Amino acid sequence: MRALFARFFLLxxxxxxxxxxxxxxxxxxxxxxxxxxxxxxxxxGNLLGSCNIDTPFIPASILKIxxxxxxxxxxxxxxxxxxxxxxDSRDNLYIRGFGDPLLISEEVLAILQHLHRRGVKKIxxxxxxxxxxxxxxxxxxxxxxxxxxxxPIGATVVNFNSVAFRVFRNHRVRSTxxxxxxxxxxxxxxxNMSPGRYLINVCQGSCQPEKxxxxxxxxxxxxLQHKAGIGGQGGFARKxxxxxxxLVYFHKNSRRLDEVLQSMxxxxxxxxxxxxxxxxxAEKYGYPATWAKANRAIxxxxxxxxxxxxxxxxVQEEGAGLSRNxxxxxxxxxxxxxxxxxxxxxxxxxxxILVKSGTMNGIFNYAGYLSDGxxxxxxLNQQRNTRGTVLERIRRGRYPHKAIGRTx
Length: 408
What we know:
By secondary structure, the protein is of the alpha+beta class. It folds into two domains: 25-76 and 260-395, Beta-lactamase, CATH 3.40.710.10; 82-255, CATH 3.50.80.20. The protein contains eleven helices and 14 strands. It has a six-stranded antiparallel β-sheet with strand order 2-1-14-13-12-11, sandwiched between helices. The protein is globular.
């Protein structure tokens, strides 16, 4: 009986000490953290200091780091997004996309020049084949604003589903990108706008994303086909490539996955993140891409990387951090950062620190690596943005220097 009691007492003591260690770093930050967490570890995963390390918080865009880690594991750093081009007997073009987030004007022109070299001299109707995706909805948390961060996603998309143009005083609209011609969709979006320069997504408000994305893609291909020396004209529609159409070109994007990830993390692109998220699911479990396949693929990949207990603490509805239903703990993010450390250079450099920020209304987060390589996390779900102050105190080492546990 005494042995049982002693064992019970020791177990309670361990839990109490663990709790004290987890919250030991909170008092020194009471003036800047009202609802949040922070944590820092050494390169081996030894926890150096923390506050509320096991409390789940909304991660916002720092969730792009687990998405990037899963992409590297499932797709590999050399992966290139693909697009298939078909021609039928009537010289109609079918563009079948697989969620390439960097199918930009320069890439489209290169595709058309390649088609010309392969003997394509005429393109009549242009059909957008978006059958590689079967989405039940747009990304959870996406809003209907004109902000490029709220651009819709799909299988066959161009230029981040956003347009840059200038409206003149006479209501004339012109593209502000030299590589992108002025398209009729720009004129439609800009006709009622005040003079000035704009960068907006092509589908805001109550527009139908699939139709609008198809129109934008078809207009860009049509405008650039003549520059590539290809004649012909015709309408456009969403249509799956028929069996009798001939595959004339299997295009792989000029940028590898590691370059795509660097763009995603540097510019915090929700568009890239969610196309990656869906592609991971489709490549692992087969096309068409769905949210269910993506959720399962990401979870199973993170289970392999972090272990089932840690992975179960990540609540992830999409890949960009848009949804306010997403949750993660500071301890879990430290473990993600430890696994992601070989690719730390993909993060944006701010002075001596490599960091990914996560910002929404009432959400101010950081995750990254200090100048000596120590992983750190700051998660503030509060109205006052004090993450810079918190990070500066962490950077200056205002936490216990003795290792107080392991993050895994």
